[in-house]
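Help! Submission page says 'invalid entity' but I think these are all valid:
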Amino acid sequence: MNQIYMDYAATTPTDNRVVEAMLPCFGEVYGNPSSLHAFGQEAHGAMEEARAKIAAFLGAEPEEVVFTSGGTESDNFAVKGVVYANRKKGDHIITSAIEHHAVLETCRFLEAEGFKVTYVPVDGDGLVDPASVAGAITDKTILISVMHANNEIGTIQPIAEIGRLARERGVYFHTDAVQTFGQLPFTVDELNVDLMSASAHKLYGPKGVGLLYIRKGTRIMPFMHGGEQENGRRASTQNVPGIVGFGKAVELAKASLSEEATRLAAMRDRFIRGVFERLDGIRLNGHPARRLPNNINLSVESVEGEGMILSLDMLGIACSTGSACSSSSLDPSHVLLAIGLPHEFSHGSLRFSLGRYTRESDIDAVLETLPQVVGRLRAMSPLYAEKK
Ligand code: PLP
């Protein structure tokens, strides 16, 4: 069976060129990068080369890039690190209702620790209004954290504007750029951010490695305590193969960024048009224009997301759903709830995310298969029969 992977927002395959760049770091360049001997220095050199490449891509200084174990750690580090280091100044955090759990659960943990958190709402397209962020700032606010683009519905936030407001009020600003780093062109100065999270496995790099950009002068507590690695900010021997792979992944992304974004957006738009031509009772979730070039999030009336996912999987098509599989009620995700998805659409959400290896023929195949799957499930759905 021909398999079609359309879940690039969950993770990407590691590019063969990235694997090749990593291989020598296992058996040849294996020294500890903190060691002073030649073995250590060789590993240190490879790691610093990757750091310099990534920093240049971000328009940052190499010392402002701290390597972590992934996006989740970077989000935890940014939020906890800033609020604990600035506790004397205030105890208030502002974030949005549609952040990734890595930020939301960190905020909930901090609420239990005595911090206060404002979760600003989003509109029906998933957009944060910078005026509501500005309106939530008090003299106790020490951090604002708003994601660059949402992983489920793909909406891209007005980060530069929120960053400008944060700077005017002297509040640190963090963005989770896990879904945009290597996908959209930007520098940290263009976004007006003090802190930014990214993860290698979303841009054809290896899993288990990420980074936190920390603007020079930011007061932040170290995330891991121990050795002096990463300038004392994140103890533990660095993941040299992962970091070298991350560097290579960034180099590859940089080389094809704008052409790839154009190619993906054209396929995305053809996909969306094609689904609307073939099916009724469909809704596009997320902003129609301000959205990730590879994201398609649809709700299908009167069918359940999990049923569609499993049927598509049996036919070799991999995508994901925004209905929580962990809950027996199949409740929609916090993101779909926050955009106020109408009740009849709330259970049947599908996210297709395209990437480097997606071809036009894959779009054709899904456009042919999806209406058949929906038709079959609707034929069995009492909800759909009632509606008709
Ligand atoms: N933030 C966003 C927006 C994400 O999409 C993800 C991964 O799905 C993460 C954070 C977590 O990244 P990681 O899997 O590297 O921990």
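Support: the input was valid. A stray whitespace character was the problem, and the output above is from the cleaned input. The chain has a mean pLDDT of 95.
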